[in-house]
Amino acid sequence: MARIIECVPNCSEGRNKEVIEYIADAVRSVPGVALMDYSSDENHNRSVFTIVGDPDQMGEAAFRFAKACVEKIDMTKHHGEHPRMGAVDVPRDGRRMHDHPIPRMGGLAIFFGFILSALIFVPLDAPLRGMLLGAVVIVILGIFDDIYALPALPKLLVQIAAAAVAVLMGNQIEVLSNPNIFSSNPYWDLGFLSIPISVFWIVGITNAVNLIDGLDGLACGVSTISSMTMLVIALTVAEPDVALLMAALAGGCIGFLPYNLNPAKIFMGDTGSTFLGFILATVSIEGLFKSYAIISFAVPFLMLGLPIFDTCFAILRRVSHGQSPMSPDRGHIHHRLIDMGFNQKQAVAVLYVISAILGLSAVVLTTSGPVKAMLLLLALCFAGAISALIFMGGNGRDKKSRPEDGAENGKKEGEEP
User: DSSP character for 399?
Assistant: First the structure.
Protein backbone atom coordinates (compact mmCIF):
# COMPACT_ATOMS: atom_id res chain seq x y z
CA MET A 1 0.00 0.00 0.00
CA ALA A 2 1.39 3.38 -1.04
CA ARG A 3 0.47 6.85 0.21
CA ILE A 4 0.86 10.24 -1.44
CA ILE A 5 -0.13 13.69 -0.22
CA GLU A 6 -1.28 16.36 -2.68
CA CYS A 7 -1.73 20.04 -1.90
CA VAL A 8 -3.66 22.69 -3.84
CA PRO A 9 -4.61 26.31 -3.06
CA ASN A 10 -7.75 26.65 -0.97
CA CYS A 11 -10.99 26.91 -2.92
CA SER A 12 -13.48 29.73 -2.42
CA GLU A 13 -15.64 28.94 0.61
CA GLY A 14 -18.96 28.72 -1.23
CA ARG A 15 -17.74 26.03 -3.68
CA ASN A 16 -15.43 24.02 -1.40
CA LYS A 17 -17.65 20.96 -1.20
CA GLU A 18 -18.26 20.84 -4.95
CA VAL A 19 -14.56 21.12 -5.77
CA ILE A 20 -13.61 18.44 -3.23
CA GLU A 21 -16.23 16.04 -4.62
CA TYR A 22 -15.04 16.70 -8.15
CA ILE A 23 -11.40 15.94 -7.26
CA ALA A 24 -12.41 12.91 -5.18
CA ASP A 25 -14.43 11.46 -8.09
CA ALA A 26 -11.44 11.88 -10.38
CA VAL A 27 -9.16 10.02 -7.95
CA ARG A 28 -11.71 7.25 -7.27
CA SER A 29 -11.98 6.56 -11.01
CA VAL A 30 -8.52 4.93 -10.81
CA PRO A 31 -8.81 1.21 -9.85
CA GLY A 32 -7.22 0.30 -6.52
CA VAL A 33 -6.91 3.90 -5.30
CA ALA A 34 -8.86 5.78 -2.64
CA LEU A 35 -8.97 9.30 -1.21
CA MET A 36 -8.50 8.66 2.50
CA ASP A 37 -8.46 12.15 4.00
CA TYR A 38 -8.95 15.81 3.25
CA SER A 39 -8.00 18.78 5.41
CA SER A 40 -7.67 22.53 5.05
CA ASP A 41 -4.34 24.10 6.05
CA GLU A 42 -5.33 27.68 6.83
CA ASN A 43 -1.79 28.71 7.86
CA HIS A 44 -0.46 28.05 4.36
CA ASN A 45 -3.79 28.74 2.56
CA ARG A 46 -3.95 25.28 0.98
CA SER A 47 -6.03 22.12 0.92
CA VAL A 48 -4.31 18.78 1.68
CA PHE A 49 -5.50 15.47 0.16
CA THR A 50 -4.21 12.06 1.29
CA ILE A 51 -4.40 9.33 -1.38
CA VAL A 52 -3.65 5.65 -0.71
CA GLY A 53 -3.71 2.56 -2.89
CA ASP A 54 -1.80 0.28 -5.23
CA PRO A 55 1.73 1.65 -5.86
CA ASP A 56 1.44 0.79 -9.57
CA GLN A 57 -1.61 3.01 -9.87
CA MET A 58 -0.28 6.03 -7.98
CA GLY A 59 1.13 7.69 -11.09
CA GLU A 60 -2.25 7.55 -12.78
CA ALA A 61 -3.94 8.79 -9.58
CA ALA A 62 -1.58 11.75 -9.37
CA PHE A 63 -2.25 12.58 -13.03
CA ARG A 64 -6.04 12.42 -12.56
CA PHE A 65 -5.72 14.54 -9.42
CA ALA A 66 -3.71 17.22 -11.22
CA LYS A 67 -6.07 17.21 -14.19
CA ALA A 68 -9.11 17.65 -11.94
CA CYS A 69 -7.45 20.55 -10.14
CA VAL A 70 -6.60 22.28 -13.41
CA GLU A 71 -10.18 21.84 -14.65
CA LYS A 72 -11.82 23.09 -11.45
CA ILE A 73 -9.54 25.67 -9.83
CA ASP A 74 -8.51 28.92 -11.54
CA MET A 75 -5.85 31.21 -10.07
CA THR A 76 -6.46 34.91 -10.72
CA LYS A 77 -4.19 37.91 -10.74
CA HIS A 78 -5.76 39.04 -7.45
CA HIS A 79 -4.39 35.93 -5.72
CA GLY A 80 -7.93 34.63 -5.24
CA GLU A 81 -9.27 31.29 -6.38
CA HIS A 82 -12.43 30.91 -8.41
CA PRO A 83 -13.96 27.75 -9.83
CA ARG A 84 -14.04 27.44 -13.60
CA MET A 85 -17.31 27.45 -15.51
CA GLY A 86 -18.11 23.88 -14.42
CA ALA A 87 -19.28 22.55 -17.79
CA VAL A 88 -17.68 19.15 -17.17
CA ASP A 89 -19.46 15.79 -17.11
CA VAL A 90 -18.38 13.82 -14.04
CA PRO A 91 -19.37 10.09 -13.98
CA ARG A 92 -21.28 10.00 -10.68
CA ASP A 93 -23.92 7.36 -11.47
CA GLY A 94 -24.47 4.16 -13.40
CA ARG A 95 -26.03 5.92 -16.39
CA ARG A 96 -22.67 7.42 -17.40
CA MET A 97 -20.57 5.28 -19.71
CA HIS A 98 -17.29 7.19 -19.27
CA ASP A 99 -14.93 6.75 -16.31
CA HIS A 100 -13.32 10.21 -16.04
CA PRO A 101 -14.48 13.83 -16.23
CA ILE A 102 -14.98 15.09 -19.81
CA PRO A 103 -15.75 18.69 -20.82
CA ARG A 104 -19.12 19.29 -22.42
CA MET A 105 -20.90 22.19 -24.18
CA GLY A 106 -19.12 21.26 -27.42
CA GLY A 107 -22.47 21.71 -29.13
CA LEU A 108 -21.64 25.42 -29.39
CA ALA A 109 -19.31 24.55 -32.28
CA ILE A 110 -22.19 22.92 -34.18
CA PHE A 111 -24.47 25.85 -33.37
CA PHE A 112 -22.10 28.54 -34.64
CA GLY A 113 -21.23 26.57 -37.77
CA PHE A 114 -24.90 26.05 -38.59
CA ILE A 115 -26.14 29.55 -37.85
CA LEU A 116 -23.39 31.23 -39.87
CA SER A 117 -24.09 29.01 -42.87
CA ALA A 118 -27.84 29.63 -42.58
CA LEU A 119 -27.40 33.40 -42.42
CA ILE A 120 -25.05 33.43 -45.41
CA PHE A 121 -26.72 30.99 -47.81
CA VAL A 122 -30.46 30.88 -46.96
CA PRO A 123 -32.96 33.73 -47.49
CA LEU A 124 -33.94 35.15 -44.12
CA ASP A 125 -37.75 34.89 -44.27
CA ALA A 126 -40.08 34.88 -41.26
CA PRO A 127 -40.08 31.08 -40.61
CA LEU A 128 -36.26 31.00 -40.72
CA ARG A 129 -36.02 33.97 -38.35
CA GLY A 130 -38.39 32.21 -35.97
CA MET A 131 -36.39 29.00 -36.14
CA LEU A 132 -33.07 30.77 -35.51
CA LEU A 133 -34.50 32.84 -32.66
CA GLY A 134 -35.94 29.76 -31.01
CA ALA A 135 -32.63 27.95 -31.54
CA VAL A 136 -30.77 30.75 -29.75
CA VAL A 137 -33.14 30.36 -26.77
CA ILE A 138 -32.58 26.60 -26.77
CA VAL A 139 -28.78 27.01 -26.88
CA ILE A 140 -28.77 29.55 -24.02
CA LEU A 141 -30.91 27.15 -21.98
CA GLY A 142 -28.49 24.32 -22.82
CA ILE A 143 -25.50 26.37 -21.68
CA PHE A 144 -27.09 27.04 -18.30
CA ASP A 145 -28.14 23.39 -18.01
CA ASP A 146 -24.62 22.14 -18.77
CA ILE A 147 -23.21 24.40 -16.05
CA TYR A 148 -25.88 24.30 -13.35
CA ALA A 149 -27.89 21.09 -14.10
CA LEU A 150 -31.32 22.77 -14.15
CA PRO A 151 -34.50 20.94 -13.01
CA ALA A 152 -36.61 19.29 -15.68
CA LEU A 153 -39.77 21.40 -15.38
CA PRO A 154 -38.19 24.85 -15.92
CA LYS A 155 -36.30 23.44 -18.91
CA LEU A 156 -39.53 22.10 -20.39
CA LEU A 157 -41.25 25.48 -19.99
CA VAL A 158 -38.41 27.31 -21.73
CA GLN A 159 -38.42 24.72 -24.54
CA ILE A 160 -42.16 25.26 -25.01
CA ALA A 161 -41.56 29.03 -25.20
CA ALA A 162 -38.78 28.55 -27.79
CA ALA A 163 -40.98 26.23 -29.85
CA ALA A 164 -43.86 28.72 -29.64
CA VAL A 165 -41.61 31.44 -31.05
CA ALA A 166 -40.76 29.27 -34.05
CA VAL A 167 -44.36 28.16 -34.56
CA LEU A 168 -45.92 31.63 -34.31
CA MET A 169 -43.49 32.90 -36.94
CA GLY A 170 -44.68 30.40 -39.53
CA ASN A 171 -43.29 26.94 -38.73
CA GLN A 172 -46.66 25.21 -38.38
CA ILE A 173 -48.02 21.79 -39.32
CA GLU A 174 -51.22 22.92 -41.00
CA VAL A 175 -52.13 19.80 -42.98
CA LEU A 176 -51.28 16.11 -42.61
CA SER A 177 -51.61 13.32 -45.13
CA ASN A 178 -54.29 10.92 -43.97
CA PRO A 179 -52.76 7.55 -42.91
CA ASN A 180 -56.17 5.91 -43.46
CA ILE A 181 -55.91 4.69 -47.05
CA PHE A 182 -59.64 3.83 -47.12
CA SER A 183 -60.73 7.39 -46.37
CA SER A 184 -62.15 9.56 -49.14
CA ASN A 185 -60.32 12.58 -47.72
CA PRO A 186 -56.56 12.25 -48.41
CA TYR A 187 -55.58 15.09 -46.06
CA TRP A 188 -56.31 16.35 -42.55
CA ASP A 189 -56.70 20.10 -42.07
CA LEU A 190 -55.60 20.66 -38.45
CA GLY A 191 -57.20 24.11 -38.12
CA PHE A 192 -56.87 25.54 -34.59
CA LEU A 193 -54.90 22.42 -33.52
CA SER A 194 -52.05 23.43 -35.80
CA ILE A 195 -50.20 25.50 -33.17
CA PRO A 196 -50.35 23.07 -30.20
CA ILE A 197 -49.48 20.07 -32.39
CA SER A 198 -46.55 21.93 -33.93
CA VAL A 199 -45.25 22.97 -30.48
CA PHE A 200 -45.68 19.40 -29.23
CA TRP A 201 -43.73 18.03 -32.21
CA ILE A 202 -40.82 20.45 -31.77
CA VAL A 203 -40.55 19.97 -27.99
CA GLY A 204 -40.91 16.21 -28.35
CA ILE A 205 -38.14 15.82 -30.94
CA THR A 206 -35.91 18.27 -29.04
CA ASN A 207 -36.06 16.04 -25.97
CA ALA A 208 -35.95 12.81 -27.97
CA VAL A 209 -32.55 13.65 -29.46
CA ASN A 210 -31.37 14.77 -26.02
CA LEU A 211 -32.40 11.45 -24.46
CA ILE A 212 -30.37 9.32 -26.89
CA ASP A 213 -27.22 11.32 -26.11
CA GLY A 214 -25.93 8.59 -23.81
CA LEU A 215 -22.96 7.11 -25.69
CA ASP A 216 -19.98 8.74 -27.36
CA GLY A 217 -21.01 9.98 -30.80
CA LEU A 218 -24.55 8.55 -30.70
CA ALA A 219 -26.74 11.66 -30.84
CA CYS A 220 -24.34 13.45 -33.18
CA GLY A 221 -24.17 10.49 -35.59
CA VAL A 222 -27.91 9.83 -35.57
CA SER A 223 -28.56 13.54 -36.17
CA THR A 224 -26.12 13.43 -39.08
CA ILE A 225 -27.99 10.49 -40.63
CA SER A 226 -31.37 12.19 -40.10
CA SER A 227 -30.18 15.49 -41.59
CA MET A 228 -28.66 13.69 -44.59
CA THR A 229 -31.96 11.85 -45.08
CA MET A 230 -33.88 15.11 -45.07
CA LEU A 231 -31.27 16.62 -47.40
CA VAL A 232 -31.87 13.88 -49.99
CA ILE A 233 -35.66 14.19 -49.64
CA ALA A 234 -35.50 17.99 -49.98
CA LEU A 235 -33.49 17.67 -53.18
CA THR A 236 -35.97 15.08 -54.47
CA VAL A 237 -39.01 17.33 -53.93
CA ALA A 238 -37.23 20.57 -55.01
CA GLU A 239 -36.89 22.30 -51.61
CA PRO A 240 -33.49 24.06 -52.00
CA ASP A 241 -33.68 26.11 -48.79
CA VAL A 242 -34.40 23.02 -46.69
CA ALA A 243 -31.56 21.21 -48.47
CA LEU A 244 -29.13 24.05 -47.63
CA LEU A 245 -30.18 24.05 -43.96
CA MET A 246 -29.73 20.29 -43.70
CA ALA A 247 -26.38 20.45 -45.46
CA ALA A 248 -25.24 23.06 -42.92
CA LEU A 249 -26.45 20.93 -40.00
CA ALA A 250 -24.86 17.74 -41.37
CA GLY A 251 -21.60 19.62 -41.96
CA GLY A 252 -21.53 20.89 -38.39
CA CYS A 253 -22.20 17.39 -37.03
CA ILE A 254 -19.58 15.73 -39.25
CA GLY A 255 -16.99 18.31 -38.20
CA PHE A 256 -17.69 17.67 -34.52
CA LEU A 257 -18.02 13.88 -34.73
CA PRO A 258 -14.28 12.96 -34.72
CA TYR A 259 -13.92 14.63 -31.32
CA ASN A 260 -17.08 12.99 -29.97
CA LEU A 261 -16.55 9.36 -31.05
CA ASN A 262 -15.38 6.85 -28.45
CA PRO A 263 -13.18 7.65 -26.61
CA ALA A 264 -14.69 11.12 -26.64
CA LYS A 265 -12.52 14.19 -26.12
CA ILE A 266 -15.54 16.44 -25.61
CA PHE A 267 -19.30 16.06 -25.24
CA MET A 268 -21.87 18.21 -27.04
CA GLY A 269 -23.87 18.44 -23.81
CA ASP A 270 -27.49 19.55 -23.64
CA THR A 271 -26.36 22.63 -25.56
CA GLY A 272 -25.74 20.50 -28.64
CA SER A 273 -28.29 17.69 -28.32
CA THR A 274 -31.30 19.95 -27.70
CA PHE A 275 -30.15 22.29 -30.49
CA LEU A 276 -29.93 19.40 -32.96
CA GLY A 277 -33.36 18.12 -31.97
CA PHE A 278 -34.89 21.60 -32.24
CA ILE A 279 -33.48 22.22 -35.72
CA LEU A 280 -34.43 18.77 -37.04
CA ALA A 281 -37.98 19.16 -35.71
CA THR A 282 -38.45 22.69 -37.04
CA VAL A 283 -36.95 22.07 -40.47
CA SER A 284 -38.98 18.86 -40.81
CA ILE A 285 -42.11 21.01 -40.53
CA GLU A 286 -40.96 23.21 -43.41
CA GLY A 287 -39.54 20.42 -45.55
CA LEU A 288 -41.75 17.43 -44.84
CA PHE A 289 -45.11 18.20 -43.25
CA LYS A 290 -45.84 21.15 -45.54
CA SER A 291 -45.16 19.04 -48.64
CA TYR A 292 -48.25 16.98 -47.85
CA ALA A 293 -49.15 16.47 -51.51
CA ILE A 294 -45.91 14.58 -52.12
CA ILE A 295 -44.66 13.19 -48.83
CA SER A 296 -46.37 10.61 -46.70
CA PHE A 297 -47.37 11.16 -43.07
CA ALA A 298 -44.90 8.40 -42.11
CA VAL A 299 -41.72 10.01 -43.52
CA PRO A 300 -40.86 12.29 -40.55
CA PHE A 301 -41.47 9.43 -38.15
CA LEU A 302 -39.21 7.09 -40.14
CA MET A 303 -36.47 9.68 -40.47
CA LEU A 304 -36.47 10.36 -36.70
CA GLY A 305 -37.63 6.86 -35.79
CA LEU A 306 -34.82 5.93 -33.39
CA PRO A 307 -35.09 8.90 -30.98
CA ILE A 308 -38.91 8.83 -31.20
CA PHE A 309 -39.06 5.12 -30.31
CA ASP A 310 -36.55 5.46 -27.47
CA THR A 311 -38.42 8.41 -25.98
CA CYS A 312 -41.86 6.76 -26.19
CA PHE A 313 -40.48 3.57 -24.70
CA ALA A 314 -38.77 5.53 -21.88
CA ILE A 315 -41.99 7.37 -20.99
CA LEU A 316 -44.07 4.16 -20.96
CA ARG A 317 -41.41 2.38 -18.90
CA ARG A 318 -41.20 5.11 -16.28
CA VAL A 319 -44.95 5.59 -15.98
CA SER A 320 -45.51 1.82 -15.66
CA HIS A 321 -43.00 1.77 -12.80
CA GLY A 322 -44.73 4.64 -11.02
CA GLN A 323 -41.97 7.13 -11.83
CA SER A 324 -42.13 10.60 -13.31
CA PRO A 325 -41.71 10.62 -17.12
CA MET A 326 -38.89 13.14 -16.57
CA SER A 327 -36.91 11.04 -14.09
CA PRO A 328 -33.61 9.72 -15.51
CA ASP A 329 -32.92 5.99 -15.60
CA ARG A 330 -30.65 3.40 -17.21
CA GLY A 331 -33.19 1.74 -19.46
CA HIS A 332 -32.60 3.47 -22.79
CA ILE A 333 -31.92 1.38 -25.87
CA HIS A 334 -28.18 2.16 -25.80
CA HIS A 335 -27.96 1.08 -22.15
CA ARG A 336 -29.70 -2.19 -23.04
CA LEU A 337 -27.19 -2.88 -25.82
CA ILE A 338 -24.33 -2.30 -23.37
CA ASP A 339 -25.98 -4.70 -20.88
CA MET A 340 -26.29 -7.30 -23.68
CA GLY A 341 -22.50 -7.36 -24.01
CA PHE A 342 -21.79 -4.78 -26.70
CA ASN A 343 -19.06 -2.25 -26.05
CA GLN A 344 -19.68 1.44 -26.76
CA LYS A 345 -18.40 1.39 -30.33
CA GLN A 346 -20.44 -1.69 -31.22
CA ALA A 347 -23.62 -0.32 -29.64
CA VAL A 348 -23.25 2.99 -31.46
CA ALA A 349 -22.60 1.17 -34.75
CA VAL A 350 -25.78 -0.92 -34.30
CA LEU A 351 -27.86 2.21 -33.68
CA TYR A 352 -26.24 3.97 -36.65
CA VAL A 353 -27.31 1.04 -38.87
CA ILE A 354 -30.88 1.11 -37.52
CA SER A 355 -31.09 4.86 -38.08
CA ALA A 356 -29.68 4.49 -41.60
CA ILE A 357 -32.22 1.74 -42.45
CA LEU A 358 -35.08 3.97 -41.30
CA GLY A 359 -33.67 6.94 -43.20
CA LEU A 360 -33.25 4.93 -46.39
CA SER A 361 -36.82 3.66 -46.06
CA ALA A 362 -38.02 7.28 -45.73
CA VAL A 363 -36.21 8.21 -48.95
CA VAL A 364 -37.66 5.22 -50.82
CA LEU A 365 -41.13 5.99 -49.48
CA THR A 366 -40.83 9.51 -50.85
CA THR A 367 -39.51 8.54 -54.27
CA SER A 368 -40.98 5.08 -54.99
CA GLY A 369 -44.14 4.71 -52.95
CA PRO A 370 -45.19 2.83 -49.81
CA VAL A 371 -45.05 -0.73 -51.19
CA LYS A 372 -41.40 -0.59 -52.20
CA ALA A 373 -40.52 1.23 -48.98
CA MET A 374 -42.22 -1.46 -46.88
CA LEU A 375 -40.49 -4.25 -48.78
CA LEU A 376 -37.14 -2.52 -48.38
CA LEU A 377 -37.69 -1.98 -44.66
CA LEU A 378 -38.67 -5.61 -44.11
CA ALA A 379 -35.71 -6.91 -46.14
CA LEU A 380 -33.22 -4.71 -44.31
CA CYS A 381 -34.67 -5.59 -40.91
CA PHE A 382 -34.45 -9.29 -41.76
CA ALA A 383 -30.83 -8.92 -42.88
CA GLY A 384 -30.05 -6.93 -39.75
CA ALA A 385 -31.63 -9.56 -37.50
CA ILE A 386 -29.62 -12.36 -39.14
CA SER A 387 -26.41 -10.34 -38.81
CA ALA A 388 -27.14 -9.63 -35.14
CA LEU A 389 -27.74 -13.33 -34.42
CA ILE A 390 -24.47 -14.26 -36.12
CA PHE A 391 -22.60 -11.55 -34.26
CA MET A 392 -24.06 -12.43 -30.86
CA GLY A 393 -23.40 -16.12 -31.48
CA GLY A 394 -19.76 -15.33 -32.25
CA ASN A 395 -19.51 -13.25 -29.08
CA GLY A 396 -20.95 -16.11 -27.05
CA ARG A 397 -18.38 -18.58 -28.40
CA ASP A 398 -15.59 -16.11 -27.68
CA LYS A 399 -16.74 -15.75 -24.09
CA LYS A 400 -16.91 -19.51 -23.57
CA SER A 401 -13.44 -20.03 -25.03
CA ARG A 402 -11.91 -17.26 -22.87
CA PRO A 403 -13.61 -17.47 -19.46
CA GLU A 404 -10.45 -16.51 -17.65
CA ASP A 405 -10.35 -13.03 -19.15
CA GLY A 406 -13.12 -11.73 -16.97
CA ALA A 407 -11.62 -13.33 -13.86
CA GLU A 408 -8.19 -11.83 -14.47
CA ASN A 409 -9.64 -8.36 -14.82
CA GLY A 410 -11.76 -8.76 -11.70
CA LYS A 411 -15.03 -8.00 -13.57
CA LYS A 412 -17.67 -9.74 -15.63
CA GLU A 413 -17.29 -10.09 -19.35
CA GLY A 414 -18.85 -7.20 -21.24
CA GLU A 415 -18.94 -4.98 -18.15
CA GLU A 416 -17.70 -1.41 -18.50
CA PRO A 417 -14.58 -0.61 -16.43
Answer: H
